[in-house]
Design brief:
about 350 residues; mainly alpha; Membrane-bound Lytic Murein Transglycosylase D, Chain A; 3 domains; two-stranded antiparallel sheet; 13 helices; 2 strands
Length: about 350
């Protein structure tokens, strides 16, 4: 009996010691995981202070998601997995910070170019004798442009870009506003003449005035629409180049697969053969690229070329690109220009849509 009691005591003591050793071993891992999460959150806070959510929202959200997953793993006592998520979050923040200055500079240049073209358009309208028909709209646009310039001066480039884009939208609506103002003025003039002239004289003169207005509006509509469409197309091209650059400088350790899966290139690693074919003059082996090489990124591609590239890269069938990948539809969406008959809305009171007779010199 005593022999069995001593044996049971040894088993209990051994179990307690084993549990204690495991507990002592897990305490450092937990502390390291907590410390890693704190460091990752500090890095995320620094990225937020540097306006990463404004200029690179996708990368910033990815880093934040990894921190949340690290905390979830910590609560589940999966300390090694928690530390891995924290490390990946810090790496994501580091990549974001490396790209932040370049993205901020691209936004600045885009905003400045659009602001310059918008100011030119505004000056042309403001110097026209027809400016009185859209005085309120011109004042509002001027305020937007001045506010955008102030944002650029204080390095709030994204805020400035949004205001300039809003101003561009209002500028494209000026022809219709001026046409409506001219109709209102014509009606007022008809009422004034009605008190002084006979009915026949009023009708005859009103008809002549209306014909002159319609003739002048039609003569200048094509010019206005062409200049407005050119301005819109320019803004589209600049924005497309900012979002999807046509060249890329190879960084150390990168492969064509790494470059193809970048969100601003193709966002699909299986489209790397497109890069290889577009740069055959400087790439002998598709598996080897060198730091500093300036690669051409093909943009005007076809779905057949995308399918062929994904087949060559041994993507799993079917070979259609994912919804998040760069496709010909992206290029067509940015480069499309509406025909004149779709770019102008009808103005009540005239036989045809009539924009403002105001040339942009």
């Amino acid at each position: 009996m005593k022999k069995h009691g001593r044996h049971a005591l040894r088993v209990v003591v051994g179990t307690v010691l084993a549990c204690g050793l495991l507990s002592c071993r897990s305490i450092p891992l937990r502390e390291l995981a907590i410390n890693d999460i704190d460091n990752a959150e500090q890095a995320l806070q620094q990225a937020q202070t540097a306006e990463a959510p404004v200029y690179l929202p996708e990368q910033y959200l990815e880093a934040g998601m990894l921190v949340r997953r690290a905390r979830s793993s910590l609560q589940a006592e999966e300390y090694s997995q928690s530390r891995d998520f924290s490390r990946r979050s810090r790496e994501a923040v580091q990549r974001t910070m490396e790209e932040l200055d370049k993205e901020r500079q691209r936004v600045k240049e885009l905003a400045m170019r659009l602001l310059f073209s918008a100011n030119q358009a505004w000056d042309s309208y403001a110097q026209s004798p027809d400016k009185e028909y859209a005085s309120d709209e011109l004042i509002e646009i001027r305020q937007l442009l001045d506010s955008a310039q102030a944002d650029l001066n204080t390095q709030k480039y994204m805020d400035g870009l949004k205001k300039v884009q809003k101003a561009h939208g209002k500028i494209t609506g000026l022809p219709e506003a001026i046409a409506r103002g001219r109709i209102v003025r014509m009606e007022q003039e008809k009422k004034r003449q009605k008190a002084q002239k006979t009915g026949e004289e009023i009708i005859a003169e009103a008809n002549r005035t209306a014909e002159e207005i319609i003739k002048a509006a039609r003569a200048q509509r094509d010019q206005l629409l062409a200049e407005t469409a050119e301005l819109a197309a320019y803004a589209r091209r600049v924005e497309f180049e900012r979002m999807f650059p046509s060249t890329y400088k190879v960084a150390s350790g990168e492969t064509l697969l790494d470059i193809a899966k970048r969100h601003e290139i193709f966002n699909d690693k299986f489209m790397w053969p497109l890069l290889y074919k577009a740069n055959r003059d400087q790439i002998r082996d598709p598996k080897v690229v060198f730091p500093g090489q300036m690669l051409t990124v093909p943009r005007d591609i076809t779905y057949e070329e995308v399918i062929e590239a994904r087949k060559m890269a041994e993507a799993p069938p079917p070979y259609d690109p994912p919804e998040t990948a760069y496709t010909p539809a992206v290029y067509q969406r940015y480069m499309q220009i509406l025909p004149p008959e779709q770019a102008v809305s009808e103005v009540p009171g005239l036989p045809e849509p009539v924009p403002a007779p105001l040339p942009l010199n």
